[in-house]
Amino acid sequence: MSEAGVSEQERAEADMLRVSNLEKRFGGIVAVDGASFEIERGTITGLIGPNGAGKSTVFNLITGVYNPDAGRVIFEGEDVTGLRPYQLVDRGLVRTFQISRELSGMTVLENMLLAFDDQLGESLWRTVVPGVRRSIVEQERALLERVWETLELFEIDHLAHEDAANLSGGQRKLLELSRALLTDPEMLLLDEPMAGVNPTLEKKLLERIHELRSQGYTFLLVEHDMDVIMNNCETVIVMHQGRVLSRGSPEEIQADERVIEAYLGGEI
Amino acid sequence: MTRDTPFEPDGGDGPGAFLLNADARPRWLDDVVIIGKATLVVYGLFIGLGLAAGLDFNGIVSTLQQVTLLATSFALVALALNLHWGYTGLFNIGIAGFMAVGAYTMALVTAAPDATFPGLGLPLWIGVLAGLAAAALVGFVVALPALRLRADYFAIVTLAFAEVIRLVYNSSALQEFDLLGVELGTGGGQGMSFPNLRNTVSRRLMYVDGDPTAGPSLVGRPFLAIGDALELSPSVVEGWVYTAVLVVLVAFVFVVITWIGNSPFGRVLKAIREDELAARSLGKNTDRVKIKVFMLGCAFMGLAGMVWQGRRGYVDPNLFLPIITFYIFIALIIGGSGSNTGSVVGALLFAGLLFEGPPFVQRIVDATFDLPRPPTVYDGVIALGDLDPMPLLGYAVGELPNLRFVLFGVVLIALMIYRPDGILGHRNEPASPLDLTKERPPRERDPASPEGGESDE
Q1: What DSSP letter does each residue of A48-90 carry, written as one string?
Q2: Is B296 on the interface with A (CB under 8 A)?
Q3: For residue range B190-245, what is the model confidence (pLDDT) as tens digits?
Q4: Could you tell me the domains of chain B?
Q5: In chain B, which among 263-282 make CB contacts under 8 A with chain A?
Q6: Of A174, B3, B205, B276, which is least surrounded by CB within 10 A?
Q7: Keywords on this record (chain A) (predicted)?
Q8: Which element (helix H / strand E) includes B179?
C-alpha cells in the first residue's frame, strides 16, 4: 500500500499538470464530463478532438476562467482548482487565446511591458509619491531591455511602436506568445496558436516553441491543424464528448480506430 | 538667445529653443500651451462681449472669475471621471452622488452644534478630510458588488446609487437625527448651512488670522496690491483668491492622475479598459485595481462636491441632480476621454462657451437692445406674419438659458460625426513613466547617444 502511495507521489512530481475527473455543465449541456490526463514536464502535448469535444472548456477550467463543477487541477503537485487566473499566472501557468487577445489600443511595447509580474509601479501609492517614483522609472528601464530582447527574438521589434490593433493575425499570435513568456511561466497553454497564421510565420512560431521547450518550458496546445500536432507533439490527447478518448504518441493516435471514428462521426 | 541668433527651424539647442520646436517640447509644456490657448479663447470671448456690453473693468474681471471658477470645478470632476471612464473604462454615471457625499459630509462635520440643523462643529480642514474619506468609502461600497457587473449594468448601478444618496439627503427622516447621542441634521429638502468654505479659505489666505481688519498676509499682499492697483472691489479679489485655490487643486489632481496614468499601474488600467480577461490572464488582479481606482476617483469627485457645490456654506439635495453628471460627461466628451489635458480643455470650453456663454449673451442683449419679450413663442411667430422678426428674436433671447440644452445636443451630435474622439482624445498617452515613443531597439541606437553606448554590438 505505502509503496504504491510513494510511486503515486513521484509520478505526481514528474507531472507538470494533472487533471482528474473534471466536470463542467452549462445548463443542461455537459461540456466536460470527467476528463483526466497528465502533462509531463518539459514536453509539448497536443489536445485535439472534434468540435464540441470540450477542449476549450478544459482550457478555461485549467486556467481559472471557469470553476469546475467537480474534479481537481494539480499544478506542480499543488491543488490549484478554483484559483483565479491571476493567481495561476503567479504560479507559472499562463495561457494564450484562440482569438488572440492583444490589447488593441495599446502599442506593442505597452502590451509587452504589461506582462511583467510584481512591478513596483503597479502599486498605486508608488506612482504618485515623488521620491519613490524614481524607483519605478529605473525598473521600467530594466524591464524595457528585456522587452527588446524578446521582441528581437520573435523578430517583431520593428513593430514596437505600432498599436496592437494594426498587427496582422500572425503577428498578433507572436505578440501574444512573446508577451506570455514575459510573465515568467513554467507552462504555457496555447489555444489554437496557428489559426490564421501564414506558413512562414507558422514555421517561425514552431521554431520558437521548440526552442523554449528545450529550455525547459512545458506546452499544451489545442490545435486543429493535424500536421502541426503530429509533427511537433510528443504526446497527443484526444477528447470526445467531454472525455479523454485516447492518449499516446502521434503514431499511436494515428493508428487508433476510435479516434478516426470520433472524427468521422461514427458510433463508439 | 541674443537677437542676432538666426531662427533655426529644427530647434537649435539654445535654452528656450524647445518653445519654438514642438517636437523638442516636453509633453507637460505642450499641455500647458494647449490649456493656455483654450483659456485665451474663452477669456477673449467674455472680454469682447463684456466690452461690447459696456461692462466696467470690475464687472469684466468679476465675470472672468465666475467663468474660471465654474471651469475649474468642471475640470476637477472631469479629471476624476477621466480616471474612471477614460483610463479604466468604468462607466460611472453616479458622479453627482459622490459629490453629494463629499459636500454633505463636510457640512455635517463642520456645521455648528447649535445651528437649526446641527453638525459636529469641527474645523473646516477636518471637514474636507472627512468628505474625501466618506466619498472614497462610499465608492468602495458601490464598487464591491458593482464591479462584478458588465459595463452597462455597472453604469445603471452607479446612477441608481447616486439617486439613492440624493434621496437619502432629501429625506425628512434625516432632517434631524440622533447618532450615538449626537444631534445631527441634513435639513432634508431645506438643505443645511455650515461655515462658508469660500470665504473662510480666501480670508485665511489673504489676511493675518483670516481677519480682514488685521491686515494682509504674505499670500494676500500681492493679490490685494493688484486689486488696489486695478481698483477692484474686495469681494472680486476674494473670489479670485478662492478661484486660484481651485486652479492649484486642479493642477494637483492633474499631476496625480497623469502620474498614475503614466506608470505600470496606469498600464493595468488601460489593459482593463481594452480587455479585462487578457489583463487577468497576464496575472493582474484586476478587481483590486478597479476598486482602488474607483475609490480614488470618487474621492476626487467628493472633493469637487465640497469646493464647488459646497463652497457657499450651504448644501441642499437639488445641487446634486443627475444632470450634473451629464454636464461632466459632455465636458469630457468634448475634450476627449483618455486625455487629462483634454479633460481640462473640455471643461473650459463647456463651462465658458456652452454653459456660461448663452446667459451672458442674454444679459448683454438685454442691456444693449430694447427687444420685445413676448410671453410665448406663438406671439413671436404671429408677429412674423407682419414681417416683424423682433418678437421672435426677443423670445429666443429670453429663452437662451434653456436653448443651451439644444446647443449641448447639437455640439454632441456634431462631435460624434466630425470628431468622435473629442478634441484631444486621439492623443496617445503612453502608459509608462518613460516616453516609449522615443525608445529604440538596442541595435538601432546611436552608439554616441548616452543610453545606447554600451549596448551596441
Answers
A1: E-STTSSHHHHHHHHTTSS--SEEEEEETTEE-TT--HHHHHH
A2: yes
A3: 889 999 999 889 988 888 887 888 888 888 888 888 888 888 888 888 899 999 99
A4: 25-368+399-437 (1.10.3470)
A5: 263-268, 270-271, 273-275, 277-282
A6: B3
A7: Amino-acid transport, ATP-binding, Nucleotide-binding, Transport
A8: strand B177-179
Give the strand order in the sheet containing A44-48.
A93-95, A187-191, A218-222, A44-48, A235-240, A243-248
One-character DSSP codes across B347-368: HHHIIIIIIIHHHHHHHHHHHH
How many domains, chain A?
Answer: 2
Cell numbers of A227, please?
Answer: 500536421
β partners of residue A188: A94, A219
B179 min Cα distance to partner chain A (Å): 34
Residue B81 CA to residue B100 CA, distance in Å, equals 15
What residues of B are in contact with residue A84 (Cβ under 8 Å)?
Answer: 280, 285
**Yes or no, beta carbons of A103 and B274 under 8 Å apart:** yes
- Kindly report the pTM of this predicted structure: 0.87
- Same domain? For A90 and A115 the reply is no
Most A CBs within 10 Å, among B274, B287, B291, B337, to test the A interface: B274
Least confident of A108-117, A258-267, B28-37, B107-116: A258-267
Residues 48-107 of A with CB under 8 A from B: 63, 65, 84-86, 89-90, 94-95, 97, 101-107
**What ipTM score was computed for the predicted complex, to two decimals?**
0.85
Dihedral over Cα of B177, B183, B184, B188: its sign? positive
A207 in a structural domain = yes
Enclosing domain of residue A131: 105-166
Contacts 24+ apart (CB under 8 A), A260-265: A262/A49, A262/A50, A262/A53, A262/A238, A263/A50, A265/A50
Q: Please indicate, yes or no, whether residues A19 and A96 belong to a single structural domain of this protein.
A: yes
